[in-house]
Amino acid sequence: MYELKWNLGILITACLNIIQIHTVPYAPDLVGSYCNQPDGAVCCNGRQDSCAFPILGTLCYCDAFCEQHNDDDCCPDFLFACADGPAPVYEATCPHKGGTIKAGKTVWDNCNSCTCTFLHNRTELLCHQPHTCLMEKRIIDTVNLQGIGWTAKNYSFFWNQTLDKGIKYKLGTLQPERFVMRMNPVRRIYDPNSLPTEFDAESVWPGDVSGIVEQGWCGSSWAVSTAAVASDRYGIVSKGRQRINLSPQHLLSCNNRGQQSCDGGHLDRAWMYFRKQGIVEEACFPYTGRIETCNRHYLDRCPMRHLKKTNKYKVGPAYRLGNETDIMYEIMKSGPVQATMKVYHDFYSYERGIYEHTDLSIVDRTGYHSVRIVGWGEDRGRKYWKVANSWGTEWGENGFFRIVKGKNECDIESFVLAVWPELEEY
Ligand SMILES: *[C@@H]1O[C@H](CO)[C@@H](O)[C@H](O)[C@H]1NC(C)=O
Ligand SMILES: *[C@@H]1O[C@H](CO)[C@@H](O)[C@H](O)[C@H]1NC(C)=O
Ligand SMILES: *[C@@H]1O[C@H](CO)[C@@H](O)[C@H](O)[C@H]1NC(C)=O
Ligand SMILES: *[C@@H]1O[C@H](CO)[C@@H](O)[C@H](O)[C@H]1NC(C)=O
């Protein structure tokens, strides 16, 4: 009898314990994530005792059984996570930009989307697949603190964009193929000492040099710089008689063999198309920075203000300039040239001064871009090129930038091209 009572006691105590485990009261405002896990909600069908999470020294459940039989042993976030229920009554928050945001909310932090997530007993702002952003505070601040000859700026039109998107859609020059890189530079005969220390095509040939283009979010620098260099040379070589603005959209849309339109293009192929097929004026096929259909029938009827024999503007074969002084001599004689440069992460934030890439940016990805060198100069003993970019006039020095000259900075002196326009007699 005594034994039975004793055993019964144990049995009762054991039962009580079980009941106690399942009915243990917990504060409904308990901050925490249970069914709601960082990689997604854990919700189970029927009754699954293993579908549980520790809470206050016991367990709470995320299975349907808990809801049907005893709400008290469901985890506090069960209805929210598993049954489309209202958000838990408690307001867990994450600090964000001096304020707070509610748990479950997603916010943009520069180019990343981040969610205030429960992690058991705390909340944390977790960013989904964090990307490197085009504008990074770290780069801007360091460049400006270091005083390295140029300043950096946070461009609002680049904010909230990823570096990957910048490389893909703000540049757009495919690396020259090996055989093109072996193209021999032309030889020029001149006295290098006769070259001036400053030269600006815009002031030497006012009205002949093209303006700054905004390529938009389209990797079209291959087409934009090609059309601009040719336009400049038409005006300069014709002594202002054939001032034209040639259409980069024509190249972007129609030069598609081996080219990738807004995903980038090869310069040698662009020049070859220009030479063989010719290009119309901008007014006839205006730039949209999108992939437009190439309507050859329409382009064949574009008015050509300066042409009688042919119906497109053409150029001779592109040639390569081999070194600093050859590039200078070429610009002085016949106008701006096309250069391909390696773009480092810090370049996007360039504001003004003489650019030189910093070692801050060498860890990040780079891309190739083509630009137009319009002149050169010297500032407190530092030699620079003056270069036209194609990111609009809000960027850099009214759309231009200056870059260290004579040191092949960013490879800018290693693949420089020029062409001769095919003028009809005038
Ligand atoms: C959350 O739990 C961890 C252990 O799991 C503990 O180290 C930490 O102090 C707890 N944080 C809070 C805010 O209670
Ligand atoms: C950069 O500019 C954007 C948009 O103007 C602004 O929201 C952001 O806070 C700025 N970032 C920094 C680091 O200054
Ligand atoms: C940032 O970009 C994303 C996607 O590109 C967009 O959904 C979001 O609204 C943008 N945020 C801001 C603050 O501009
Ligand atoms: C560049 O090459 C030319 C020959 O094409 C040569 O006369 C000149 O000295 C070279 N300049 C430099 C800076 O090496």
Automatic annotation (TrEMBL):
Select a single GO molecular function from the record's annotations and give it.
cysteine-type peptidase activity
Can you name the source organism? Popillia japonica (Japanese beetle)
Q: Does the keyword Disulfide bond apply?
A: yes
Record-linked InterPro entries: Papain-like_cys_pep_sf (IPR038765), Pept_his_AS (IPR025660), Peptidase_C1A (IPR013128), Peptidase_C1A_C (IPR000668), Somatomedin_B_dom (IPR001212)
**Record-stated family:** Belongs to the peptidase C1 family.
What is this protein identified as? Papain family cysteine protease
Q: Which residues form a coiled coil?
A: none
Domain named SMB: residues: 39-86
Query: What's a GO biological-process term for it?
Result: proteolysis
Query: Would you indicate the residue range of the signal peptide?
Result: 1-23
Record keywords: Disulfide bond, Hydrolase, Protease, Signal
